[in-house]
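Subject: sequence -> structure tokens, single chain

Hey, anyone have a minute? Need the predicted structure for the following. Not urgent.
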Amino acid sequence: MEIQAGTLARKKQREPVYQISTLQALVMGNYYGSTTMEHLLAHGDTGLGTFDAVDGELVVIDGACYRILGDGSAVKAAPHDTAPFASVAYLNEDPYTIKLGLIPSMDALRDVLDERVELFGVNNMYLVRIDGYFRHVAARTELRQQAPFKPFAEVLKTDERRFSFENLHGSLVCFYFPRYFEGVNTPGWHFHFIDEARKRGGHVFELCMERGLARLRKTDRFILDLPHNDAFQDAKLEHASKEEIRQIEQGE
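Reply:
Had a minute. Here:
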């Protein structure tokens, strides 16, 4: 049967965002890894999340997964490493591109990306990768926790590690989720960074970018793979604090 090229293009464009667990579960302390890196990478080549016991921030780029250690260094994850929470998707070969000049702050970057979201539709999901030269990146990761796990906001009080990078080439991996996803994921934008050498990175809460190229992909499909651990089965996910979620994302 002959398939027209346009049909293939539409099918490719509708590849979903694949997510492990919910943000509420993570915020409330469900850090039990439920999916291997091997399985995660079968669903996308670009993404972000964290590892079992929140043992470092997770960055997926070019089909490889990296763990950000407590000193801000990046190491390649093993196929059998697991994630309690992560989102991935395929960027595809020909996404929409945006050439960027000086971006002095995270707020300025959000404004640029929000313009495209408003143009293409605010109720869809967006995956963005930005390759560029950064004057400054402020980032963080977390240290491995021991069960029984405390809520994520408590983890950040004692075991968050912050660092800054200056004058380097690197990439931002960014997801946008609509406001109605609140609790399932972060409403708006979520950014992780990894340098060009794949040696440094983290969850980003501030930056200054001199120049860059953004590749943006819109999708209207979403797959949620829920964990099967006992802690998830009866968790009161609706009790997750919206204020804590905002503080966690923005690094306040």
